[in-house]
Amino acid sequence: MLRAILSDVHSNLEALQAVLEDARGQGAEEIWCLGDTVGYGANPNECLDLLSSAGALLIAGNHDWAAVGKLGVEWFNPDAATAALWTGRQLREPSRRLLEGLPLREQRGAFALAHGSPREPLWEYLTSSWVARPSFDHFDTPYCLVGHTHLPAVFSYDPRLDRCLMRDFPPEEPLPLGEERLIINPGSVGQPRNGDPLASYALLAEDAGWLLRRRVPYDIEAAQRKIREAGLPPRLWQRLSHGW
Ligand code: ZN
User: Fold this and answer.
1) Is 157:116 a contact under the CB 8 Å cutoff?
2) Nearest to 239 by CA among 200, 196, 186, 202
3) Which among 187, 240, 241, 243 is positioned nearest to 214, based on CA atoms?
4) Cα(first)–Cα(last) distance of the chain, in Å?
5) Which residue, 43, 36, 87, is CA-closest to 63?
6) 10 alpha carbon to ligand 1 midpoint, in Å?
7) CB–CB of 103/60 below 8 Å?
């Protein structure tokens, strides 16, 4: 069975629709979503509705909890705080209930799921092998899927040498799932920050033993227009053009 692994949708409906269409076209039957489904973009309810109706497995990100007041926004940068408070005001009741009930961690077969890291699911950014190393002690499965940095990446751990390595997760190059323990970030659907404005996600073929990262074009201008019209901070729509 093929699964679509999504993260950091961030209320970007145009990107989410394009990714789901691409994933279905590839034969994906199930969706796992690694948190920050809302925040920054203009369509929080619509994104949650679309993922719910597709039966997606969702976990909590910092923006998801901030939107429903389970986290204070005092540690957010000003643009993120403004967006979190705006999102909170837009939420319909079913969306609010869904976000309030999101778990911090999930486990499915050989995979642990956490937004930031298995060590600190809401806040930790896995941006280096040095930071990622302790997280390998915080999940029991061979593999872990994370988001949060909006940067596609693969971390591997060699227990004999107690060594963690970070490497790129290039698109369209199958990542084999072998004996090596891995933490994998598929990049962001709705607000990429790797210098590539296309939506990013991964396909997981667990039985065949590989993951594949996909880049998907979407109507960036439509998403930007809605963020602008909502009166959200300009940087939130401007950055979608260049993917930083
Ligand atoms: Zn995020």
Assistant:
1) no
2) 196
3) 187
4) 33
5) 36
6) 7
7) yes
pTM exceeds 0.90: yes
For residues 84 and 77, is the Cβ–Cβ distance under 8 A? Answer: no
Interatomic CA distance for residues 206 and 118, integer angstroms: 20
CA dist 220 and 222 (Å) reads: 6
The 10s digit of each residue's pLDDT in 101-122 is 999 999 999 999 999 999 999 9
Q: What is the pLDDT of residue 109?
A: 95
pLDDT of residue 75: 86
Alpha carbon distance 220, 228 (integer Å):
12
Pairing of strands 175-176, 199-205: unpaired
Angle at 244 between CA 228 and CA 117, to 5 degrees: 110
Residue 142 Cα to ligand 1 midpoint, Å, equals 24
Distance (Å, rounded) from C-alpha 68 to C-alpha 95? Answer: 9
pLDDT in tens, 128-157: 999 999 999 999 999 999 999 999 999 999
CA distance 34 to 158: 25
Distance 8 CA to ligand 1 centre (A): 5
